[in-house]
From TrEMBL:
Active-site residues annotated for this sequence: D242
Name this polypeptide is given: Methylthioribose-1-phosphate isomerase
Database matches in SUPFAM superfamilies: NagB/RpiA/CoA transferase-like
Gene3D superfamilies: translation initiation factor eif-2b, domain 1, Translation initiation factor eif-2b, domain 2
Record family assignment: Belongs to the EIF-2B alpha/beta/delta subunits family. MtnA subfamily.
EC class of the enzyme, as a word: isomerase
The keyword RNA-binding is assigned to this record: no
Catalysis performed (reactions): 5-(methylsulfanyl)-alpha-D-ribose 1-phosphate = 5-(methylsulfanyl)-D-ribulose 1-phosphate; 5-deoxy-alpha-D-ribose 1-phosphate = 5-deoxy-D-ribulose 1-phosphate
Any one GO MF annotation of this record: S-methyl-5-thioribose-1-phosphate isomerase activity
Site entry: Transition state stabilizer: C162
């Protein structure tokens, strides 16, 4: 995608030195666009843990490059296994993290230590390229859902939750990819952007992305979605996901479950965009088996924003302590369908297997 006309991915190898890894510091957006240079595995782990990078597909890609940085320091099998285990503990819910690390290890365990660095960079590059291609394919399949609504002769209103755009992936995004493609087709559409408390990824990141791309949008409070649906102001909901079970349960940013309930009550289609790397075929019951990350209560009690004089400040908004579960699970029965790189399917085991028969 582009920023001020210049194409970017969300993670890339620095072309000047050919080995360090560049990312956008998403904790600085939307007020400041900063590019960070990662040179060690500890810096990669910190970037994931602190949410300088976030979004399941991007976390996986950055972890893969984190393995590359680790091997530059020590390519021994013992160090590789240790560093990969450390990276795998940075975030518990998004399955792409462990998927990417497992893929890197599968490629590298039988590779001689002297050849591991080159092999790691090649494999991490493939992971990044595949993610970009999968997200583009999700956009091609998902745009038809928007186009079908546009055929009714009026503006299409899409509601999103959290950020599932190109900042959350290597490129294009998941939930936002169909929106970008609909905008490029000239379809008259408008996006309701949930603020997505407590970290405000919708208000800060999705809104920044859509504004940079020229897509009409309006930021709304998290609790406004049901009201908008009741009054016919939402044609469909499209969200991303951090993990999908083999029976179609969906783990996504906290508050997604409530949007799905409101959508069901108001007959609004509720679609989930997910690359195949986000499907966890080892898990059936999302409520029972997906670990939910509990993050610092300070993310709830404190808010960062721009002051009237232009300075960036963090203020406390409540005197009380806070709990902060970062994700919830939407049962498959509330999901209209899944948008994958291979097409759309019902959120069921049979639906997923129809697109991924090799998993039978």
């Amino acid at each position: 995608m582009k920023i001020d006309g210049t194409p970017y991915r969300s993670v890339w190898v620095d072309p000047e030195d050919g080995w360090s890894v560049r990312i956008f510091d998403q904790t600085r957006l939307p007020w400041r666009l900063e590019v960070l240079r990662l040179t060690t595995v500890d810096e990669a782990a910190h970037a994931i843990r602190s949410m300088q990078v976030r979004g399941a597909p991007l976390i996986g890609a950055v972890a893969a490059y984190g393995v590359c940085l680790a091997l530059r320091a020590d390519a021994s099998t013992e160090a590789m296994e240790r560093d990969c285990a450390m990276l795998g503990e940075t975030r518990p819910t998004a399955i792409n993290l462990r998927w990417a690390i497992a893929r890197m290890l599968a490629r590298l365990r039988d590779t001689a230590p002297a050849d591991r660095v080159a092999a790691a960079y090649a494999e991490a590059g493939r992971i990044a390229d595949e993610d970009a291609a999968q997200c583009e394919a999700i956009g091609r399949h998902g745009v038809e859902l928007i186009a079908a609504k546009a055929g009714q002769g009026r503006r299409v209103n899409v509601l999103t939750h959290c950020n599932a755009g190109w900042l959350a992936t290597v490129d294009w995004g998941t939930a936002l990819a169909p929106i970008y493609m609909a905008h490029e087709r000239g379809i008259d559409l408008h996006v309701w952007v949930d603020e997505t408390r407590p970290r405000n990824q919708g208000a800060a990141l999705t809104a920044w992305e859509l504004r940079s791309h020229g897509v009409p949008h309006t930021v709304v409070a998290d609790n406004a979605g049901g009201h908008l649906m009741q009054h016919g102001e939402v044609d469909l909901v499209i969200v991303g996901t951090d993990r999908v079970t083999r029976q179609g349960d969906v783990a996504n940013k906290i508050g997604t479950y409530l949007k799905a309930l409101a959508a069901r009550d108001n007959d609004v289609p509720f679609w989930v965009a997910c690359p195949s790397s986000t499907i966890d075929w080892t898990v059936a019951d999302g409520l029972a088996e997906i670990p939910i990350e509990e993050r610092s209560g300070a993310e709830v009690t404190d808010v960062t924003g721009r002051m009237a004089d232009g300075t960036i400040a963090t203020v406390r908004v409540t005197p009380s302590e806070a709990a902060n579960p970062a994700f919830d699970v939407t049962p498959a029965r509330l999901v209209t369908g899944l948008i994958t790189e291979r097409g759309c399917c019902p959120a069921t085991t049979d639906g997923l297997l129809s697109l991924f028969p090799e998993r039978t």
